[in-house]
Amino acid sequence: MKQEMITFLSTLKDEIFELTKYLYNNPEESFHEYKAYNYISSLLNKYNFEVTPSYLGIPTSFYAQYGKGHPKVCFICEYDALKEKGHVYGYNAKTAISIASALALSKVIPKLGGSAIVIGCPGEILSGSKVAMTEQGTFEDIDAVLMVQPHTITAESGSSMAIVPLQIKYTDNSYNNNTSTGKYSALDACLFTFDALNVIAKGFENNCFIGDINVNSITDSFPESVEAKFSIKTSSTKIADEIENKIESFIKLTCSLLNVSSELHLYSMPCKELITNPTISRLFSHNLKESGIINISGIKNIFSSLNLGNVSHVVPCIHPYVSIVNDNSIAYGTEKFAAATVTEFASDAIMKAAQALSCTAFDIIDKQSLIADAKTELSRLQTSTLQIR
C-alpha cells in the first residue's frame, strides 16, 4: 500500500507545484487569506475530502477529513504572508507539503483505515489560530499532528520558546489632588518595574528574556496612568509561569511603595514551548532518508515561538525542517527565500518531504502501537517539563 501511495504522489507533482506558485503569486495578510482558502478548499473537495468551511467561525479557516475513525493523523496548512515581502517564511511551500501528504495518504485510507485530517490555520504570522483551536478542543480527538517547515537547512524537529505576553497599567492614586509635591507618578512606577524585570529574569536560566517592551505614548510629564506591554520569553511554560508570579509580587510591592494602583493581564494568548515527539521524529527522519534526502542536521531549536507549541502539549507533534534552496547565500525570511519556493529545486524537495510525511502518517496508522508509544512519551515529557526547577 505504501508504494501505491508513493506512486500516486508522483502524479500530483504538477498540481502541487501549481498550488505553491498560486500562493506565492497571491500573498495575503494574516486572517485575510481568502484566495488561498478558496484554492486549497477546492483542491481538497476535488479529492473527496469533507471540508468544513469557516471552521470555528474563522472565515479563512477550514477542517477537512478523509476517512472515518481513528487513528486520525492531522496535517496543518499555514498560508498567510507579509504584505510587502510575500511568502518570506515559505508558508506556501509548507501548505503544499501538507496538502500533498494528505492527498497521498487518502489514496490508501479505504484499505488502511483511519482518517486523514487537514486543518487550515490562518494568521500564523500574527497571533495564529492554532492556540485558539487548542483552547476549544480541536486537537483532543487527533492522534498525531505532522508538519514540515521549508527552510535553508534540513534538520530534525526541536523545541521553541514559551512566551507569555503581559500588559500592565499603573494609575497614580494621588493624581489631581493638592498634595502632589514630591509624589511618585504612574510613569515612575512603570520605569521602576522595567528596571526590575530583567533582574528577575536573571534568577532563572540563560535563555530567559523580557522583550517586546512597548510603553504607551506619554502626553504630559506626570501622566495619571501609564500602560506598557512586554513578553516573558523562556524555554518552558513552567519557568514563564514562575517569572510571572514573581512579577506579580513585585508589582504589588511597587504599588505599596509608590502609592499607585495596577492592573496586570494578558494582551494575547500565551504560546507554549514545542514538545517534539521522539518516536514520530525518528520515524520521519528515517522516511526522509528513504525519500532521497540523506543529509539531515541535528535537532533544530528556535528562539522564537511556534503556535504549534500549544498543540504539542495535547497531542504528539513534529515540526522538522527541509531545505528548499541550493544556494547557501539565501537567508530564511527574505524575499530571495520566497522566490526560491517556486523553483524546480524547491518543487523536488517539497515532493520528497511530502513522501516522507505521508509515509510517516501511513506507519502511524498501520502500526498503531506507535500511537501508544508516542502518547506515553508525551505524558513523560509533560511531566519532565513540570519538574523543571
From TrEMBL:
Keywords: Hydrolase. The keyword Transferase does not apply. GO terms for molecular function: hydrolase activity. The keyword Hydrolase applies. Signal peptide: none annotated. SUPFAM superfamilies: Zn-dependent exopeptidases (SSF53187). Belongs to the peptidase M20A family. This is Peptidase M20 domain-containing protein 2. It comes from Clostridium neuense.
